[in-house]
Batch of 4 targets.
Target 1
Amino acid sequence: MELLSVKNRNPTKGKLDKEIYKAFVRQKSRDIGASDILSEINIDSTFNPRFEFPSSSIIKSLILMRLKGIKSQSKLAEYLETHENDAIKLGFFRDRNNKVKTPDQRTFSYFIKNHMDDNRNQLIDFVSRTIVTLLHL
């Protein structure tokens, strides 16, 4: 079984599936959305001091993009800018002016071109499919 990278561990898909299911169960008592589940999944965030945003937040955003059927990176950037609660749940932060700082289309494009690999693409596919199954999207 192929390994997927999750924060400080290298679990199998089965272990990641259990983590997603546990997040779903913890959130089930309230109206749950994809960003609620994504907020509780610890996706690997290899730190790059040159990059302004955590890679885990960008990967979670790309998963959300698939789940919500957002067709372009510019629409994803607009969505995150206008849906601050989802952006916070994905791991983005507020700046000094209390505005949520989210990537723009150019940042998403750069990340996809320079930081995505087969392992991360498989991670996005697997997490997306698992969440779709749990939420019946």
Target 2
Amino acid sequence: MPLGNGFTLPEAAGKKYLLVGNDKALELVEKLPKNVVMIDCPIEEYEIGRPFSIGEKAEVFEKITSAVKENSLTKITEIDIPDTSKITMVYDNRLTLEFGSMEDLQKKMKKAVQIIKSVDADYNNKATGTIRLQYEDG
């Protein structure tokens, strides 16, 4: 996983990101540095140098980042959590992974790793597109 996270701040004029690390707000920037994952999950409150809050999505965020680390998806460049039923990630700025809900997240992550390895082997790490990992109940 990259060095840190940059949360979007949609209420800020223009597109701004809050860099965080060790559960603290570090810096407000207009452009994300390399090795930072962009996370589209609104921050409820923050103060530079102090802990920040993403409210009700905190537990979801923790589960997602744990699953990313456990499955060694080291090239995740973006995580989008508009709500818990529409989770999307971007791998290596070229493959969009649509997970849908949190249901069976570990299983979906493992499948994503298998597909990425296969696609990267076939297309020399240059493939682009969307991988849909969500499924309908029933």
Target 3
Amino acid sequence: MAKVAPIIGTEMTNEMFFEKFIELTQSVVSNVRKQCVTVFPVMCEVLGVEVLESHMLPLYVKLCDDTLWNNRNACAQNIQYISILCSLNLRRKYLVPIMKKFMFDDSRWVIISALNVSHLLPLSFLFNSFLIILEFG
């Protein structure tokens, strides 16, 4: 799905894969959800900003609250790619609280991933959003 989506484009990806992808993100099988998180940035980029804002970002937020640490870890590893695709307001509203939660997660692997990723985030994310954590944290 993720390998074909960039080739076939937004319209066909939306027609062929969008509903199935949404269904897979809610699977009871944890490895399926983890694979969805892994390809989430690719799907968001191909589907476009409108679909990201209306459908994909709420799914990502839900996946970030997964009960299994390996799925939350995959979300923590991909947050920088999601942040590139989001507007500043969406980063402030959704991604900053998620990143803060990852940094204080119960799993040390999620914490390590969040801290490793924090130095890779785009400058706009760092300077605009992490200041919010420092001010209101």
Target 4
Amino acid sequence: MGKRTRTWTLVRLGGAAGVAGGLLWVIKFTVIALRDDSFEPLESIVFVGGLVGIILGTIALAALVARRESRWLVLLVVVAAALGSFLLQIGVQALVNAAVDADNLGISEEVGVLFVGALWLAVGVALTRRSPPRPIY
């Protein structure tokens, strides 16, 4: 297997992880909104599983963007992307949650999770479906 194929396989796997993470968060939102309450202890497992998938998707996206740079720069970009993604998700969730006021407490508290989850469903699908326009070495 050539370097190009190996790199693209890793990007697609990261995209699949992003899809799985986004899907877990959409499921988390749906169950909480329907119940208007949490579903512990599984809720924590679904949240962490989704977060891990989304961070893996972020790492794949960062590696794809920085693929032509030196190894140290790629490593720096990947670490920064993972940390930045985590912080950005917290910020986006807080902003979206603050903007939505619903009678259903589950919707009010979890709409940010739905927004980020749906976004990562789309990004992950794009990473898994996109074929490289030119060799990625």
